[in-house]
Amino acid sequence: MSDQGARYHFAVPAPEALAAALQRLGVRDGSKVVAYDSGGGIWAARLWWMLRSISVPAAVLDGGWQAWEAGGHPIARGDETGGGETSATPVTGPLTPVPRSGMWTGIETVRAVSRGERPGTLVCALPPGGFDGSAPTRYSRRGHIPGSLSLPGRGLLDGTGRFLPAAELAERVGTVLKDEESPVILYCGGGISAAGAALALTLLGRQDITLYDGSLEEWSRDPSQPLATGT
């Protein structure tokens, strides 16, 4: 599910490689995928974004594993599938990736937007301490890409890990992003929290979203790329 040859972690693989990995799990043409996790939804959102990028219909279970468990729904253990007619052996069939344009962006585009050389709004989905540089980081340097706005991805969830109600979510996002700010380029440390923010913006009806896959892991490794601290 990631390009092991990339210079940064979690890099999106080539469409054909992603499709091959999904096919081994039983995803095929005509499949609809529901992703969930137990980590606040950002990993499921990352998979959702990757699937959408090759035109595989996908959704994210709001609240993830905790919501399913709390709701008293059936749970399978071990090799059980718990899916009735669903077999433990993945259904085989072709999966044809159809890449969608505008889903991903690279460092050159981000640099140009940061410098004001092309339109776009940079949005950092890290927590406030990661954005302003006050918190320790596992990346090469602290701070955010100059010109960025701060929209912490986990701040768009409630205490149970579900997305905030639509009106509250719109209000939270609206304090940072205005309707005329387009297109939006989301990033974080490694492109994971940014995917969660992308899902939130998509729920609000925004279509002008792209994700900087390398995020700060790639940006901070290059000393020629500036970083800003503070708010």
What's the gist of this structure?
With 231 residues, the protein is α/β, with parallel strands linked by helices. Helices cover 30% and strands 10% of the residues.
Please characterize this protein's 3D structure.
30% of the residues lie in helices and 10% in strands. The strands form 2 sheets. A 5-stranded parallel beta sheet has the order 3-7-6-4-5. The chain has 8 helices and 7 strands. The mean pLDDT is 92. It has 231 residues and is an alpha/beta fold. Helix 2 (42-53) crosses helix 7 (193-203). The protein has helices spanning 15-24, 42-53, 64-70, 107-114, 128-132, 166-174, 193-203, 215-221; strands spanning 33-35, 58-60, 104-105, 121-124, 149-150, 184-187, 209-212.
Question: Can you tag this structure with a few keywords?
Answer:
7 strands, alpha/beta, single chain, 5-stranded parallel beta sheet, 8 helices, two-stranded parallel sheet, 231 residues
Count of helical stretches: 8
Strand percentage lies at: 5-15%
**Overall 3D form:** globular
Mean pLDDT, all residues: 92
| SSE order | HEHEHEHEHEHEHEH
- End-to-end gap: 34 Å
Q: What is the helix content?
A: 25-40%
What is the number of strand segments?
7
Identify the strand order in the major beta sheet.
3-7-6-4-5
- By secondary-structure content and strand pairing, the structural class works out as alpha/beta
Q: Biggest sheet, in brief?
A: 5 strands, parallel
Radius of gyration: 18 Å
